Amino acid sequence: MNQFSTIFIILLMLGTMLQLWLSLQHFLHIKKHKTTVPQGFVEKISLKDHSLAANYTMAKIKVQYVDLIFGAILLALWTVGGGIHYLDSQLQTFELSPIWLGIVVILGVTLISDIIGLPLEIYKTFVTEEKFGFNKTTPQLYIKDWFVNNLVSFAIMIPLLATVLWLMDSTGTYWWLLVWAVFISFMLFMMWAYPTFIAPLYNKFTPLEDQELKQKIEKLLDSGGFHCDGIFVMDGSKRSGHGNAYFTGLGSKKRIVFFDTLLESLTHEEIEAVLAHELGHFKHKHIVKKLINTSAISLGCLALLGWLIEQNWFFNGLAIDTPSNHLAILLFMLIFPVFNIFFTPIFSFLSRKQEFEADEYAVSQTGKIHLPNALVKMYKDNASTLTPSPIYSAFYDSHPPAPIRINHIQSLGDSQ
């Protein structure tokens, strides 16, 4: 134990207590308002549906309590508790090369943590989601997904980690600049490859067959100067009753994806409005801005790691006697969220600002009626609470709360 150990433990405790307090405020606020539908939604959301959304959100918060406490304990055990040091020392007896030792240790900690957390994830799916009618996943499909997830993750991470560890070992003091270039290249590659090669491992994607809707969408895309590789319907109902729509991909591999559950609940005009919102993110260059922000943050983090790797107190404070490149990466990845949690409100605020801008674009393309109607249906179908705690929402939410968001849309001028 050293001064860094003390700072880390204090911040871990403060961050966990802050998140528990925020979740409690969220729970109490929702419970207080669960018997009254917010003004402006009375004619669109029944008290039964409003109460269902409140109960669903409160049930998820109860699980979140356990998740937060359990996660903090597990992190402490891995780090200051000596868990990583023990695993690393045991694996060293196999006399692996430094690169392969690093890969096995990092993936080993990841896999063990995943297995330890599996009971809670199963509870979320087969108890919480099942209770409120959202789970469509069978135990057989859940097991298959778990194995596929890990196989895909290992297939991706092994060559990436091998490259990073080799660069750290062989390119001198400023290895982090080359690793940053690899990271950015990898991120762009995954954005390009995910929709074509990875997503189909989990879901079936079929071209949109509704010709009338397809023509509306193509007209909207043409008006915005947006080009994509296709418009697809995903069998989201295979695993969940939740609905959504999104853009994915990069360059010529961009595609539009609708959950089949979403298409069943919205009219053509409402689907067009939801799509116009997503298109608004591209028109305002939000995707590019996020890529730039991610690139800048990752560069800063790697530069920080490049400095920390030379500091014995960093390793000693986290129960490591013998520093190594792979342990530096693993420790940094594990403890980064402890420090980053206090910056969450900043990123949430910036994200909500972009959502407002995307809404404004959608209204300019499809009017002020269809997007609010679509949002109300989506809130109802997904059992999203209409009364989140203001302080919880300000801290976490990437999207504005329902009343604020819809009031903003309705306040836009006729020119919008």
Overview of this protein structure:
The protein has a 4-stranded mixed β-sheet. 71% of the residues lie in helices and 4% in strands. The chain is mostly helical. A hairpin with a 6-residue loop joins strand 3 and strand 4. The chain starts with a helix and ends in a 5-residue tail after the last helix. The mean pLDDT is 94.
Concise structural overview:
With 416 residues, this protein is mostly helical. The chain has helices at 3-33, 47-78, 83-92, 98-131, 139-170, 175-198, 211-224, 260-265, 268-283, 286-308, 312-316, 325-340, 344-366, 370-381, 390-396, 402-411; strands spanning 205-207, 231-234, 245-248, 255-259. Helix content is 71%, strand content 4%.
